[in-house]
Amino acid sequence: MGALLILAAASGAVAVVLALRLWFVLHSRIVVPRKSVSLMVVAGSGGHTTEMLRLLGHLSSAYCPRHYVVADTDEFSAQKIHSFERNRADRDPSTMMPTYHIHRIPRSREVQQSWLSTVFTTLRSAWLSFPLTYRVKPDLVLCNGPGTCVPICASALLLGLLGIKKVIIVYVESICRVEHLSLSGTLLRPFCDYFLVQWPTLKAKHPSSVFLGRVV
């Protein structure tokens, strides 16, 4: 079709619908057709990273290069990403050059950190996020709730406000969020191009969100 190459064959009707909707968002906002989409993925410790990698497993190689952003103390996510990408390369021997990079920024909030001190650590994280986002200039930011995604998404929005580049932000609320949005989701929902929830209770409370059933 001369437009973006997006999701390869994915299992299940939900994944197919997600593919079509993501194509629409990308095609309607990226003016110049291209063969690849520069993707910035925000990974979080534990379940966030696991859910994100499941979702990425449905994305085709057209989403490259893939830039993963992890907290500087999050070795678990870095190891999971390396493993995921190695398995991906094994399934696609034609991939000769690495198509992913891992970037580290300070964590916005540590577990049990006081909310007052979180303000300062988040500002520090945002201060270091903008140079990274400016250097990468991704077409799409994909995140699912870790605190690290807040400064990254703010930086992506700033690129658009400064007229440097319009970056599409897609937020997928974690499957564990059944009744209430996460703090990250609450903060970012008004600014996302595409906000997905995985439970009908959240869709009922937030009509502007998109409910596609379970996507991870």
UniProtKB/TrEMBL annotation:
Subcellular location: Endoplasmic reticulum membrane
InterPro entries on file: Oligosacch_biosynth_Alg14
Family, as annotated: Belongs to the ALG14 family.
Main subcellular location: endoplasmic reticulum
Top-rank taxon: Eukaryota
Membrane association type: Single-pass membrane protein
Native species: Desmodus rotundus
Protein name: UDP-N-acetylglucosamine transferase subunit ALG14
Oligomeric form and interacting partners: Forms with ALG13 the active heterodimeric UDP-N-acetylglucosamine transferase complex.
Pfam families per UniProt: Alg14
Biological process according to GO: dolichol-linked oligosaccharide biosynthetic process
Cleaved signal peptide residues: none
GO cellular component: UDP-N-acetylglucosamine transferase complex
